[in-house]
Amino acid sequence: MEVDAPALATETDVAAFASTFDAMVHQVERVVLGQESVVRSALIAMVAGGHVLLEGPPGIGKTLLARSLAHVVGIGFRRIQFTPDLMPSDVTGGNIYNQRANEFEFRPGPIFTPLLLADEINRAPAKTQAALLEAMSDRQVSIDGVTRVLPRPFFVIATQNPVESEGTYPLPEAQLDRFLMKLVITHPTEAVEIDLLEHVIRGFDASDLHAADLKTVIDAAGIEGLRQVARRVRADRPMLEYIARIVGRTRQHPSVDLGASPRASLALLLCAQVLAAAEGRAFIIPDDVKELAAPVLRHRFLMQPDAELEGVSSDSVVAAILQDIPVPGGEKGRPT
């Protein structure tokens, strides 16, 4: 029996989507200064239903970004500081014996929250990383044969320091592929840093977002509604071919040892649909794909060692691929 395709998003749907999305971005940017691209991309990933790997040095607002997103979206937030002695049960929880009841009872771990900040994920050993990444993939936790479903939405922001490598456990490629996007957050410009200092002089306290009058724009049900609208954004055959060719080219590039999997194609499609809706369009265009190609793909393929020694980065590979592959319908053409 054939299943009817869902109705396409209407202009009214995407107009309401764009208004809500812009309001969320505006609120987060009130406290996370100078990181417009990162804020926007993180919200795209959240609405698309994926997770974010956030890479950057300490002290540039990664925790503030996560807390602000949770506040603006109106969902719960918890943070785990990953350390070498962190155990899987410290993340997922476990069964604890209750002497009074003479039975074991489940104590949920911090992973049972809508938005989880996994701080310095590469400082925990592989078995602890795997416990988190399994939950990210399956949206559930299984302990002693009992499966417990995680909240909806369930959004993970994992951070890592790109410079300090001592005492770390790098994520394997198969686990990196579980992140919808890898975002790179850098030090602010001098002008932004001055704005940040003035922000503090006026009384801003990063630990008290309520005092900053940060408004909640939406709730968990609203995020699910936005996700449903985005999934109905039209993606015509030429756009699907464009996405597939971009991802496929990573498997043929001379600087790449192991190319991106089909999961990357799906991720690029889902993110492009969200971006199109955020721009008030009911269809995706090549610019949506091109804007998101680097954050969606940069962590999904393995570079040749010689290429890395020569200073070739994953972002430069993505840029070269985008330059090489013809754009369907012209740079600004509407899909036919």
What does this 3D model show about the protein?
- The chain is 44% helix and 15% strand.
- By secondary structure, it is α/β, with parallel strands linked by helices.
- The strands form four sheets. The protein has a five-stranded parallel beta sheet.
- 39% of the residues are buried.
- The protein has helices spanning 11-29, 36-48, 62-73, 88-92, 126-138, 173-176, 190-201, 220-231, 237-250, 262-278, 286-297, 305-309, 314-324, and strands at 52-55, 77-81, 93-98, 103-108, 115-119, 140-143, 146-149, 155-160, 181-184, 256-258, 302-303.
- The longest helix has 19 residues, at 11-29.
- The two termini are 29 Å apart.
- Strand 6 and strand 7 form a beta hairpin.
Summary, kept brief:
With 336 residues, the chain is an alpha/beta fold.
Average pLDDT taken over every residue: 88
Distance separating the two termini: 29 Å
Please give the count of helices. Answer: 13
Residue share in β-strands? 5-15%
Helix content: 40-55%
Q: What is the approximate shape?
A: globular
Oligomer: single chain
Radius of gyration: 21 Å
Q: N-to-C SSE series?
A: HHEHEHEEEHEEEHEHHHEHHEHH
Biggest β-sheet description:
5 strands, parallel
**Count of individual beta strands:** 11
Protein structure class: alpha/beta
The strand order across the widest sheet is: 2-5-8-1-9
Uncertain segments are: 332-336
